[in-house]
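Input structure tokens:
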């Protein structure tokens, strides 16, 4: 999670707070999306999602796994042609 240093200007602290709120909103929306799209890679989720791209999923899903709301499973060959983790609601 993004945090501002004590020595940073107030604008940095405000931006860090906005980022924290935005990231939490993304995690909630991604969890709802994943409930009907279990077993896909972050790339595949990004292709199906009307809101988020694969990079946003790739950033948030490990955070969500650490929090225990999602889990990753076996690797599969992704639409990108590479092996990638698949994601499920925990």
């Amino acid at each position: 999670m993004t945090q501002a240093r004590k020595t940073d200007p107030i604008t940095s602290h405000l931006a860090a707070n906005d980022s924290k709120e935005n990231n939490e909103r993304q995690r909630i929306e991604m969890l709802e999306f994943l409930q009907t799209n279990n077993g896909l890679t972050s790339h595949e989720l990004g292709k199906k999602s009307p809101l988020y791209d694969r990079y946003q999923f790739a950033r948030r899903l490990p955070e969500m796994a650490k929090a225990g709301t999602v889990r990753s499973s076996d690797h599969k060959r992704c639409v990108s042609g590479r092996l990638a983790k698949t994601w499920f609601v925990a």
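The helical segments are 10-35, 42-48, 54-67. The first helix runs from residue 10 to 35.
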